[in-house]
Design goal:
Layout: H1 11-23, E1 25-31, E2 36-37, E3 40-42, E4 45-50, H2 54-61, E5 71-76, H3 77-89, E6 92-96, H4 100-109, H5 117-120, E7 123-124, H6 125-140, H7 143-146
Parallel strand pairs: 4-6
Antiparallel strand pairs: 1-2, 1-5, 3-4, 6-7
């Protein structure tokens, strides 16, 4: 069992996975009518933002007046992990724990046919799924095994 994050994930991405698995949910922002998921798109692709806890998402929501109408929506990890397979098939990337500043810049540049920010500020859904599954397995093991101190 490897204890290091997927090579294509940053330490911040791995932190997202740890926090999400501990909380057993992720948080996203939706449009108030019919809880429609917010999606960002530019020349490099499509991304959906998710936060590993409510306070991070709330920070984004309160960062600008135009974001205050967004609703926070919990997605249980038991639903999120399988959904990542569908998102990968659709080539939808996942934005992880974007800061309010990053969310704002991406919001302003969304639909910019010259921008490549989505690829820069997001991770492939399949890679995130792999990391979440690794973290789920790691959190199931006794602490000594996770640290590599196997007896026997």
């Amino acid at each position: 069992m490897k204890d290091t994050p997927h090579p294509k994930m940053t330490s911040g991405d791995a932190e997202f996975a740890r926090e999400a698995v501990l909380a057993r949910e992720v948080i996203t922002l939706t449009l108030p009518e019919d809880a429609i998921q917010i999606v960002f798109q530019d020349a490099s692709g499509t991304a959906m933002p998710f936060c590993s806890n409510r306070s991070r998402a709330e920070e984004i929501r309160k960062s600008r007046p135009e974001f205050e109408h967004y609703k926070l929506r919990e997605v249980f990890l038991s639903n999120f992990v399988p959904w990542l397979t569908e998102l990968e098939a659709d080539r939808t990337r996942i934005g992880l724990n974007w800061s309010p500043e990053t969310f704002g810049v991406l919001y302003e540049r969304c639909h910019d046919v010259t921008s490549n920010l989505m690829r820069t500020y997001s991770v492939q859904a399949a890679i995130l799924k792999e990391e979440l599954e690794r973290e789920i397995d790691a959190q199931r093991l006794p602490r000594t095994e996770r640290l590599g101190f196997l007896s026997g």
